Amino acid sequence: MPDRPEIPGIPEERAQSYRAAGWWRPETLHELVLRHGKGIPDKCALVSGDRRMTYGELAATVDRAVGRLSERGVRRGDKVTVQLPNSIEFVVLLLALMRIGALPMLLLPTLRSYEVERVLKLTGSRAMALTHRMRRFDHLAMVQELRPRHPHLDLLLVAGEELPSGSDIVDMSELCSTSSTSGCSVVPIDQPQPQDAAALLLSSGTSGPPKVIARTHESLGHVIRTNSAVARIDADTVYLAVMPAAHAFTLSCPGTLGALAAGGRVVLGSAEDPRRALRLIEQERVTHFAAVPGLLSQWLDVLDVDRFDTSSLAVVQVGGARLEPAAAERARSALGPVVQQVYGMTEGLCNATRLDDPADVVSSSQGRPVSAAEEVLIVDDGGAPVPPEHPGQLLTRGPATVAGYYRDAAATENAFTADGFYRTGDLVRQLPSGDLQVVGRIKNVINRGGEKICAEELEQLVRELDNVAEVAAVAGPHPMHGEIVCLYVVPAGDVSPELREVRLHLESRGVARYKMPERLELLDAMPLIGVGKLDRAALREAAAARS
Ligand code: AMP
Fold first, then answer.
1. Which of 53, 314, 466, 537 is most buried, judged by most C-beta within 10 A?
2. Nearest 5 degrees, angle CA 58-CA 61-CA 63?
3. Tens digits of residue pLDDT in 233-258
């Protein structure tokens, strides 16, 4: 396989020990889901708007999509960038690509041309799936504009209305239609193996721009299985996916894939309208959903004034960003003892509180690894283990955690220790109960309501402005999002940059909206520590003091 060396592999001895212990199993993710097409064909697998799809229909639809994609030349090892909202099309395409052995590169729908172009270039994607227009943004126009610079991108799979015709455009609704009889079922001869990559995901990492991560079937299978056990996912689960299904939290912790692998039902929704989501919980008798703290607090605000029947909820997973203890207690008193704090990262490690943990552990900690095989170390600046209950950087290694980044040896070298531990960039403390508490961060990432913004990427773009001599992006506190981007700028020349101008520049460069700075402060000089190193902590303190 030409792409194997692009994906740093776990040393063979460790990989074999995971297999021998049963942490990694000889299974592929698509088979874990599609086998239900035979076992429970009439059971509802997916709900999206007023469309429902049984497991039998899902298996048949994936079959046909495999055939049609194969006819269009999509082959094992091809990369296919997927930027779709939570929809039946997303699930069908994901499973069809996995079955072919083509690698879906999953992107959040909020990303724009700057981020999409980086990914197209890095992966050399030969196809891209997108929605024509979403939230008044024309994704198709965006991609068509990028295409001349990416001649390898020769197939567009497009969802939505008013699609232009063209031999390089495939209608996603036709590709994923249950009733359509066109197109044959082609079983690819060269079947993907459990040790092969199943999907590519985007992570904020710890420094520099976002990184691509390749997840293998056997490693992601382990993540799904262990998370499903801790979140008590089974065939009776009704999982509501409102956060983007492309994010590891909603995809595999245990997420959409976990619920489908268990033979449960997945309700695909969006986070835009809290009342609509709460109505879905009531109508579909939802048992599980995952939310970032800001989203949960919006829903609790609605529940304070309107009545919705949420009695079906068994587990509410909250994570992606810090949940304040008071917010956790509020959620528990509104929804019952169903709250589960989740702290994890796309690189693999996933921690969670347990449903039978005491209330104070659930409200004040982010739990412990869901996989008993995951190794965690808490170390000081020099890499030595800290004394019990002292804060330090969390390092992690195990069957859930990758060994490095896709096609990025420098970033791998930077973020992983020589013996394979991932340096999370998070500061944690281990409580006497064994649970971890996230107390801070040493990486240059701003966490705006669970959406991560890489400070260095933003700074590099702002530096393109002539009237900016130096710039630093740091997190400032925000009541709803937890954190927002505060820019500190040392101006060049007489006319200082204004926030509006910086935002317009970033917009013209095609940067996603959620990354836009929300405050800008001018400085005569950047605060420094030691021999000229930027003192980001001082800027963060200044940002907190001014809010
Ligand atoms: P990503 O993989 O890009 O989604 O980001 C993972 C990072 O999100 C972690 O390394 C943490 O910095 C942050 N994070 C995730 N969950 C939590 C949580 N429950 N509390 C605090 N930070 C979190």
1. 53
2. 110
3. 999 999 999 999 999 999 999 999 99
pLDDT band at 186 (very low <50, low <70, confident <90, very high): low
Residue to mutate, 324, 345, 363, ligand 1, most ligand atoms under 8 Å from C-beta: 345
CA–centroid distance, 460 to ligand 1, in Å, is: 23
Residue from 3, 431, 407 nearest 198 by CA: 3
User: How far apart are the CA of 225 and the centre of ligand 1, in A?
Assistant: 20
Please check whether residue 52 is in contact with residue 267, taking contact to mean a CB–CB distance below 8 angstroms: no
Structure-token match 């390092």, residue found: 395
pLDDT bracket for residue 546 (50, 70, 90): confident
Extract the tokens encoding 296.
């949960």
Per-residue model confidence (pLDDT) at position 2: 44
5 preceded by cis ω (within 30°)? Answer: no
CA gap 302, 99 in Å, rounded: 41
100 CA to centre of ligand 1 in angstroms: 32
Identity (one letter) of the amino acid at 393? Q
Whole-number mean pLDDT of the chain? 95
Nearest to 99 by CA among 5, 198, 1: 198
Residue 4 pLDDT more than 80? no
pLDDT the model gives residue 501: 97
> How far, in Å, from the CA of 345 to the mean position of ligand 1?
6
HSE on the CB side for 503, CA within 13 Å?
13
Residue count of the chain:
547
Pocket of ligand 1 (CB under 6 A): 203-204, 319-322, 341-346, 366, 424, 426, 438, 441, 447, 452
Ligand 1 pocket: which of 111, 368, 426 to mutate (most atoms <8 Å of CB)?
426
Residue 137 tokens read as 């943004």
210-236 burial string, b = 16+ CB within 10 Å, else e? bbbbbbbbbbbbbbbbbbbebbbbeee
Q: Is 390 exposed, middle or buried (0-12, 13-18, 19+ CB in 10 A)?
A: exposed
| Cα 59 to ligand 1 centroid, rounded to whole Å | 34
Which atom of ligand 1 approaches the CA of 205 most closely? 3
pLDDT tens, residue by residue, 387-428: 999 999 999 999 999 999 999 999 999 999 999 999 999 999
Q: What is the pLDDT of residues 39-49, one digit of tens each?
A: 999 999 999 99
Among 264, 369, 189, 249, residue whose Cα is nearest residue 33: 264
- Note the pLDDT of residue 5: 61
How far is the centre of ligand 1, averaged over its atoms, from the C-alpha of 447 (Å)?
8
Q: pTM higher than 0.90 for the full model?
A: yes
What residue owns the CA closest to ligand 1's atom 5? 345
Check whether 331 has a pLDDT greater than 60: yes
